[in-house]
Amino acid sequence: MASRPTTLSTLRAAIASGAVRRRPVRDEIRENLIGRLRAKQTLFPGIIGYDDTVVPQIVNAVLSRHTFILLGLRGQAKSRILRALADLLDEAIPVVPGCEIHDDPLAPICAACRARVRHEADALEVTWLAREGRYVEKLATPDVTIADMIGDLDPIKAARANLQLSDELTMHYGLLPRANRGIFAINELPDLAGKIQVGLFNILQEGDVQIKGYPVRLPLDVLLVFSANPEDYTARGKIITPLKDRIGSEIRTHYPATRHEAMAITAQEAWLTRTGTDAIAIEVPDFVLEVIEEVAFQARLDSKIDKRSGVSQRLPISLLENVVSNAERRALLAGEPVVVPRVTDVYAALPAITGKFELEYEGELRGADNVARDIIRSAVGNVFGGRFAGADLRQVTEWFDLGGNLHVHDALEARELMARTAQVQGLRDLAGQAGIGADASAPAVAAAIDFVLEGLYAQKKISRSVEGQYQGAEPPRRPARPAPEPAPDREIPTGGGKKKYYN
Q1: Which residues of the chain are in CATH 3.40.50.300 domains?
Q2: CA distances from 439 to 387, 432, 442, 444, 478 (A)
Q3: CATH fold for domain 8-252
Q4: Helix (H) or strand (E) holding 36
Q5: Cα–Cα distance between 82 and 229 in angstroms, integer?
Q6: What is the pLDDT of residues 223-268, one digit of tens each?
Q7: ∠ CA(168), CA(174), CA(177), 5° rounding?
């Protein structure tokens, strides 16, 4: 609206005329959501892959006026979804100025605001609180106290105002009352101590909280939402059963279902834009993007990685950033005009992978670096197989099988890589099938050649040493034949049979 009411009397007039709406926060969010649904607007911008699964369940919970909890492994956008709920609030609401719990001027619940309304009447000043100030978030930790969440008495406030400790004006409000008329989100709910979870019972069931030491109840208007890892997946704590019973909806999140969705998330979140006067243009080939994303998919399937911990979507995001940086370093040293990452840059970016997963016992024995290399190789093999299904690879593989060998590495500049690989018959033509254009730059051609070599290695059609020496595939090892039974050097008849003696 053009001009908002600034006093209690003008606020009453605006409400009476319908210019200002006054409603509980759950009804406010519900009605604003209905408006977005009718207008076919995007409900949660930036949330990808949940349109047919998680988002409809959240919509149902909001339409039902439920509190709800998002259950899911790390890196599944739980916190982002909770923060996006603030967009469903009104642009601003009228509040009593200076009130810690954003009291409604027409129905104040704290003693100080009630006294002001009695004293100032229609002349009471009214201010407006934007939606950003109505969202309160708390990361649950074991050291959180009931005073932090609900509140406690404040002896210093009592002494300064010369009040008795039993006076309601000596209250110190916790985070939950300060979220009054808004949204209160608690992340990692199981980490909250059980006795603190008990303190949330009243607000979920009766809609009020009781401050320690006071015979007074605060009927708060607040929507509580939570996030957590599934109970079975954490040994740090659990959600107590009575609290779970009071939460209206339990919504499960998940990792991206397809590589295409995962690539869209990574492209949205990764930092790739290099700024500055000396910044070099960056061109990331599609096959490199696919390999990076496939690394996360392969890691989630690998038996050597703990499934209970999960593999966050932050892995491909960090990996892409590190891959581009490795290619940028190569381009700067070689003086190349454009940064084009290669598949070998993924191997050089192991530090962006090894810290993103927890290993099972078998993985611990193998080592994080070796597990990561195995995952990358599987990812390259999958992407290469999809892009070169039906392609004739014999001319290239036969060159290596006939004794040809090739030494390349991730720091090799593009033109040098192309010069070294020119001797491999059919390799350049095969690289053209990777999706590069006829007028592609030297770094782009080098990246395609590198992809073909790594793809052949991943599918075990050629071999490669750690130093980057490509050569023919190693022949499969035959199982060792059992040693023949030695012939006896003499036989002595004994009854109905013969006794054998061996050398």
Answers
A1: 8-252
A2: 20, 11, 9, 10, 47
A3: Rossmann fold (3.40.50)
A4: helix 25-38
A5: 15
A6: 999 999 885 544 557 889 999 999 999 999 999 999 999 999 999 9
A7: 75
